[in-house]
């Protein structure tokens, strides 16, 4: 199987996580940001992640991929119940976290934006989404201040560093990618319990954190 991804993409992280959690081999192929043809030929539109199954067929949509791989051997890993508080937390912070990691993503050495044309396209796409990237970077202290009480709340929700609800569930698939994205923010100090969860989940899912490129 092959998994077509962008290295920065939280949705791609979701798909990659299930392979790591289940220790299933998969070839990861990075799509270029300005490569429209390849994903369009696969699934009819520019999107990532895309799974190429063993039979050669293609499957888009991160959670469809997660559920397909998790059920493939009849022994699902994501057997735990979800907690509505996790979805509520993610919804509450989405307009705080994106302004922190998006402008930093545009500066990072991700393979999908390694060429000038790919980076320019990505910068334009992100600017259209979140606004002036330089201004967002300048406003980092404000966003960090807004995020801190939410992180403190999250620490109270984490039941285990190896599963947010004590047993692996789809909540982990949704939560970890956002927290992983935040590791690119150099000035951010995660509460100890949150940091322990992030580091443990990174090891279990075999997904690298972004500390090495933090700005």
From TrEMBL:
Residues annotated as domain GST N-terminal: 3-76
InterPro entries per UniProt: Glutaredoxin2_C, Glutathione-S-Trfase_C_sf, Glutathione_S-Trfase, Glutathione_S-Trfase_N, Grx2, Thioredoxin-like_sf
CDD domains: GST_C_GRX2 (cd03199), GST_N_GRX2 (cd03037)
Taxonomy, superkingdom: Bacteria
Gene Ontology CC, one term: cytosol
Domain (Glutaredoxin 2 C-terminal): residue spans on this chain: 85-214
Protein name as annotated: Glutaredoxin 2
Source species: Pasteurella testudinis DSM 23072
């Amino acid at each position: 199987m092959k998994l077509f991804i962008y290295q920065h993409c939280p949705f791609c992280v979701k798909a990659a996580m299930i392979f790591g959690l289940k220790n299933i081999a998969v070839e990861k192929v990075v799509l270029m940001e300005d490569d429209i043809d390849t994903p369009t030929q696969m699934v009819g539109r520019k999107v990532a992640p895309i799974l190429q199954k063993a039979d050669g067929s293609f499957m888009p949509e991160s959670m469809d991929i997660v559920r397909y791989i998790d059920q493939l051997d009849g022994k699902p890993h994501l057997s735990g119940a979800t907690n509505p508080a996790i979805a509520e937390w993610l919804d509450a912070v989405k307009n705080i976290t994106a302004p922190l990691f998006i402008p930093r993503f545009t500066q990072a050495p991700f393979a999908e934006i390694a060429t000038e044309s790919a980076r320019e396209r990505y910068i334009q796409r992100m600017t259209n989404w979140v606004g002036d990237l330089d201004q967002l970077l300048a406003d980092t202290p404000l966003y960090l201040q807004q995020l801190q009480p939410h992180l403190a709340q999250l620490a109270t929700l984490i039941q285990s560093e190896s599963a947010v609800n004590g047993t692996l569930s789809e909540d982990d698939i949704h939560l970890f990618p956002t927290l992983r994205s935040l590791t690119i923010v150099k000035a951010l100090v995660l509460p100890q319990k949150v940091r322990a969860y992030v580091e443990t989940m990174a090891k279990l899912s075999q997904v690298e954190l972004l500390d090495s490129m933090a700005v």
